[in-house]
Amino acid sequence: MDTAMKKLLKSIFLPVILLFAFIAANAQTGKIVFDNISHDFGSNVPEKGGNVTHRFVFTNKGDAPVTIQNVTVSCGCTTPAWTKEPVAPGEKGFVDATYRPAGRPGEFKKNLNVTSNGDPKMISLTISGTVVKPPLTVEQEFPVVMEQIRLSEKAFAFGRVVITEKESKPSEIKVYNSSETPVELSFKNVPDYLQIQSITLQPKEKGVIKSVYAQTKKSKYGTNIHEIEVFANGKKLQETLTSTITLIPAASGDQSKLKPVMNFMNNNYTFGNIKQGSVVSNEFKFKNAGQADLEILATNAVNTNNDNLKITFPKTVKPGEEGIIKVVLNTKKLKGPQDFNIEIITNSSSNPVSNIALRGNIIE
Question: Domain 32-132: which topology?
Answer without folding.
Answer: Immunoglobulin-like (2.60.40)
